[in-house]
Amino acid sequence: MELRVVLLLPLCFPGLQAQIPGELSQREGSNLSVLCPYLAEDEYRELKSWCRWTDERCQPQVEINGTRTYTYTERAREGHITIQGDPINRNFSITMTDLQVEDSGTYYCAYSQSYVLLKRISLNVFKEFHKLELDSLSVQCPYHDLGFHSERKAWCRYAGQNGTYDLMVSTDTNYTRGISKGKKGRAWIQDDTQERTITITMEKLQAQDSGMYWCALYMPQTPPIFTRIMEVRLSVAKRPAATTLSVTTGTSQNYPPGNSTQPHLWSFTLQALLGFFINKVLVILLLVFLQRRGRCRKEKRRAAEGSPGQLPEEKRS
């Protein structure tokens, strides 16, 4: 995220609007489409460009000249920034996919080698978090301007319709090995100037913590001034009430804490044990019956065949 041109960064004074007029806010991971019309007298073969205002000049991201396209950044080469011409309708379109916080900045539709500016887009890409109560939030806010390392950093919250921001926590003026820290209530902030990263931590989140926040440069004057580095939108939901499972039929009943006597559960347990023993008895009776029937069949078979060595009565007479 390019932040060198401080005048282009949104500032927040008490009583002023939080958003720049005409600023376009997009959630990280979303897509952006921009249509750039040009006048009829502009030659359609002229170079068309999508450029980003950086270091006091418009640096091209992608360009199209006739049917040929040119890419100048890693994001463009990866296919996340594309340009398409439509000479019949005298316009060209820009598509940015999978937006990242680092894509925040000021862009222009332009044409010709001299970059005649046609349309301005101020893009703010924010991070969005969904948490439950008592969760913790950890946010990293990178910054790329070397001039920011000596500035105080802050975590501030949008105060409401009046467009002001309230200070939540800020770094102090003491740096130890390039690191400055701060703590206030449930919020922590750490500025690592070597990594150029601000780390924000909020503990034991509550539903009322939901809102819009900034990682910002902080000028502790009266009134204080916050210069946005990154925007964060936080949503904290209440945790679902704990549910108790009970083996019952019909209307459920509540029992006082510590009372483990539950008639329905005991009744179910007794019925289950009784059924178990009845099944065991039936199985045993069935086995005894089958065993006795087998013996009876063997005795009848022996009686029909006669005893070994015994002759019939007719032959004995």
Descriptors:
317 residues, 3 helices, four-stranded antiparallel sheet, Immunoglobulin-like, 16% helix, alpha+beta, eleven-stranded mixed sheet, 40% strand
Write a structural description:
This is Natural cytotoxicity triggering receptor 2. Residues 14-122 form the Ig-like domain. A hairpin with a 4-residue loop joins strand 7 (81-86) and strand 8 (91-96). The strands form three sheets. Strands 1, 2, 4, 5, 6, 9, 10, 12, 13, 17 and 18 form an eleven-stranded mixed beta sheet that branches. A four-stranded antiparallel beta sheet has the order 11-16-15-14, with no helix packed on it. A three-stranded antiparallel beta sheet has the order 3-8-7. Helix content is 16%, strand content 40%. The protein is elongated and about 125 Å long. The model is unreliable at 1-19, 243-263 and 313-317 (pLDDT under 50). It has three helices and 18 strands. Among the domains are: 22-125, Immunoglobulin-like (Sandwich); 127-237, Sandwich (Immunoglobulin-like).
Oligomer: single chain
Name the shape in a single word. elongated
Helix content: 10-25%
What is the arithmetic mean of pLDDT? 81
Please tell me how large the radius of gyration is.
Answer: 40 Å
- The CATH topology of the domain at 127-237 corresponds to Immunoglobulin-like
Transmembrane segments: 265-290
GO cellular component, one term: cell surface
Region (Disordered): 298-317
Domain Ig-like: 14-122
